[in-house]
Every structure is written in C-alpha cells, then in structure tokens.
Amino acid sequence: MVKQTEGVDKRSQILATALKLFNSQGFHGTSTASIAKAAGVATGTLFHHFPSKEALLEILFLSVKQEFANALGAMAVPEGELKQQARTLWLGAIDWGMENPDKQQFFQQFSLSVEIPLPLREEAMQGILGFIGAMILEGQKRGVIAALPLPLLLENCHGQYLSASRFFLDRPALARDETHREASFQLFWNALRP
C-alpha cells in the first residue's frame, strides 16, 4: 500500500498506481478495489475521480500519451531537412521510452489493445500527436514520403515505434549503441520513403 502524504493529489496517485498494476496484472486482472488499496485511497475516492475502470484506463492512456507528445514537442526542430527532423524525434522517442520504462511498458501493453477504443486511439494519434501527421503531410508535399493514406502511415509509424522500443527495452545496452540507434531510425525512415 502506498502511503498518502499531505498535499499529494489523489487523482495523480490513483493514476500512478493504476499504471503499475495494469502493467503487472493486466487490465482484467486488476480490480478497482486493488487500485484504491494500493493508492491508499477509499474505493469511493477512486470512483469520485474515475466513473469506471475503463474510464481510468482511458484517462491514463491519454495522460501518458500527452506526456510523451509534450516531450517530443519540446525536442522538435521545425526547420531544416525533414529526415533530420524525423531522426531527432525518433531518437528522442526511443530515449523517452528508456527513461520512462513503466510508461513505455504501458504503451506496449495497451496501445494496440481492444481495451482502448479506436476513437480514443485516433484522438491520441491525430490530436495529441498531430504534429507527426503534419510532418508526414509536409514530407509528402516535398516528395520525400510516400503518398499513402495518412491514417495508415501513422499506424505504421506507431507500430514501428512500439517494435523498436520493445527491442531496446529488452536490450538496454543497445539503446545507447549508435549503430543500433541509427539502424532503428533507418528502418523507420525507409518504410516512409516513396
């Protein structure tokens, strides 16, 4: 059980606890009562902040996705060669996953899960991470990215990121190896080329 300290936001505490329990026990293996107990709050407090376990998962998904997008947005270089901009974001995303293994594990488990409804996944990809779609459209306009449907390209990029980040999470020493880092980017970039 996590001790609730004075001034700690209960909602944030519930989200942090749910992240850990969903990662270790899965969605169906985690009860709202176990989340409340581990967070050090009453079950009624959990339901005050989140009307259901599904709503808690969805809010957690969007909040982690927003944190990820904020980190990438802070690294974005809006000018220059598109390939270099993409490399900066790709390697930054890999680094974020290594620096936030619990959140990256959550992505691994839930990003493609039926537990996250399609409209919510689309909101995360096209809304929260909308700047990636804008980069792809710009690349298509410049002729350096294949003129394929944007939603399919975004889903492909997402899948490649999940695959590469899983590889590096399983082999943390290689996440610092420049040959492997660059190879992961080249695989990503080559899949986008016309």
TrEMBL record:
<dbReference type="InterPro" id="IPR023772">
    <property type="entry name" value="DNA-bd_HTH_TetR-type_CS"/>
</dbReference>
<dbReference type="Pfam" id="PF00440">
    <property type="entry name" value="TetR_N"/>
</dbReference>
<feature type="domain" description="HTH tetR-type">
    <location>
        <begin position="8"/>
        <end position="68"/>
    </location>
</feature>
<dbReference type="InterPro" id="IPR009057">
    <property type="entry name" value="Homeodomain-like_sf"/>
</dbReference>
<feature type="DNA-binding region" description="H-T-H motif">
    <location>
        <begin position="31"/>
        <end position="50"/>
    </location>
</feature>
<dbReference type="InterPro" id="IPR050109">
    <property type="entry name" value="HTH-type_TetR-like_transc_reg"/>
</dbReference>
<keyword id="KW-0238">DNA-binding</keyword>
<protein>
    <submittedName>
        <fullName>TetR/AcrR family transcriptional regulator</fullName>
    </submittedName>
</protein>
<dbReference type="InterPro" id="IPR001647">
    <property type="entry name" value="HTH_TetR"/>
</dbReference>
